[in-house]
Design brief:
- There is one protein chain.
- The chain folds into three domains: 102 residues, conserved putative lor/sdh protein from methanococcus maripaludis s2 fold (Beta Barrel); 156 residues, RNA polymerase II/Efflux pump adaptor protein, barrel-sandwich hybrid domain (OB fold (Dihydrolipoamide Acetyltransferase, E2P), Beta Barrel), CATH 2.40.50; 72 residues, Helix Hairpins (Orthogonal Bundle), CATH 1.10.287.
- The chain is 26% helix and 33% strand.
- The chain is an alpha+beta fold and 389 residues long.
- The strands form six sheets. It has a six-stranded antiparallel beta sheet with strand order 3-18-22-21-20-19, with no helix packed on it. A six-stranded antiparallel beta barrel has the order 4-13-16-15-14-17. A four-stranded antiparallel beta sheet has the order 5-12-10-7, with no helix packed on it.
Length: 389
């Protein structure tokens, strides 16, 4: 081989080598494998339901009267004050009585005129009876005098009734308490013109006390009249027992809840208007076996809730829809979707995907051992949660 041929062959080999290197540089490197995420799980099991439904309520009087004047007029004075205890017959407010006094005076004058006419008709009747006995007048004339006397008597009775009515209306210008109690509201002030029946004050009558609270529609049917209710004061935490006295027949138009009234002992009842908490015994499920999960294990899927369930054989996770019945403190009570013994991921649920391989997180301070075995604790035991890697 000549020197020129050898040089040409060497050059051709260099070109091929450069082309191969260029092609190798243009090809994509293999995608790195997704790193395994460390998760902590809990073994699903049953445990006792620990809380009772509690509703905020208010202490009210068994009977609360709305008092108003029985006549219309302008309020000139109000003696009642908010929170003031009152006795039966005590004056609460006063209307301007001048018009009613004038009307009573007019009725009194009409009564006097009717009395005079009646007396005149009686005197005429007695005189005409004497004339009839002497046959000086006819029987028809005597009957006319008797009719005149009866009419005058009826007019007198009408005037007397009118005077009594006007006298009562004059007395109605003073509003008095008909029962002992406490003023709970003032709804009219001096100078205001009110019509008959308009509420001026409200009185909570002394005596029995009720705790009033509301429950949702799905719970109202479970609370029966006469059932027991535990009542706890908000301010002092004092516990007392009561009985359901009344369950509303229809829901509130705005809140769509049903009002419950519970009778409590008036001697030990908190002050009127005090806030209390009511726990109906009929709604209590304390001690009942339920499946509970921490709220961190739940995620939204579609229109419902779901959790990640770990398959120990493949170390992959799958999505499992669940139904949340209620809450027990900071835990969710699972109604359906899970079976006892399942391993549920309780942290990092929003970064996982169906079929993703995971590892069980191991605490660095824990003794060495199989990773999966750490997750299989007693049913219902939550393995501490760590941030996903």
């Amino acid at each position: 081989m000549t020197a020129s041929s050898a040089y040409s062959a060497f050059r051709h080999a260099g070109v091929l080598l450069l082309a191969a290197l260029a092609l190798a540089g243009c090809s994509r490197p293999p995608a790195p494998e997704e790193p395994l995420r460390a998760v902590k799980v809990m073994t699903v099991g049953t445990s006792a339901y620990g809380t009772e439904p509690e509703y905020a309520g208010e202490v009210r009087a068994r009977v609360e009267s709305r008092l108003g004047f029985r006549v219309a007029g302008k309020i000139t004075r109000r003696q009642a004050e908010l929170g003031q205890p009152v006795k039966a017959g005590q004056a609460l407010a006063q209307l301007d009585p001048q018009d009613y006094r004038l009307a009573a005076d007019a009725a009194r004058a009409q009564q006097a005129a009717a009395l005079t006419n009646r007396d005149l008709a009686r005197a005429d009747l007695q005189r005409y009876r004497g004339l009839r006995e002497q046959n000086f007048i006819s029987a028809a004339e005597l009957e006319r005098r008797e009719s005149t006397h009866k009419a005058a008597q009826a007019q007198l009775e009408q005037a007397q009734a009118q005077l009594a009515t006007q006298g009562n209306q004059a007395q109605y210008t003073t509003l008095v308490a008909d029962v002992p109690g406490i003023i709970t509201a003032i709804e009219a002030e001096p100078g205001q013109v009110v019509s008959a029946g308009t509420t001026v004050v409200r009185i909570a009558q002394d005596g029995a006390r009720d705790v009033v609270f509301s429950v949702p529609e799905d719970r109202a049917g479970l609370v029966k009249t006469g059932s027991a209710v535990a009542v706890r004061g908000w301010a002092d935490g004092k516990e007392m027992e009561g009985q359901v006295r009344e369950v509303a027949a229809s829901a509130d138009a705005v809140t769509r809840t049903y009002q419950i009234k519970v009778a409590i002992d008036a001697a030990t009842a908190p002050a009127l208007g005090a806030t209390v908490y009511a726990r109906p015994r009929a709604l209590s499920h304390s001690g009942a076996p339920v499946m509970k999960l921490p709220t961190s294990a739940l995620r939204q899927e579609g229109k419902g809730s779901a959790v990640w369930v770990l398959d120990k054989s493949t170390m992959t996770v799958r999505s499992q829809p669940v139904q949340v019945s209620t809450a027990d403190g900071n835990e969710a009570v699972i109604g359906s979707g899970l079976e006892p013994g399942a391993l549920v991921v309780v942290a990092g649920v929003h970064v996982l995907s169906p079929g993703q391989k995971v590892t069980i997180y191991r605490d660095k301070t824990a003794a060495p051992g199989p990773a999966v075995q750490e997750a299989v604790n007693a049913p219902g035991t939550v393995t501490p949660v760590s941030a996903p890697r």
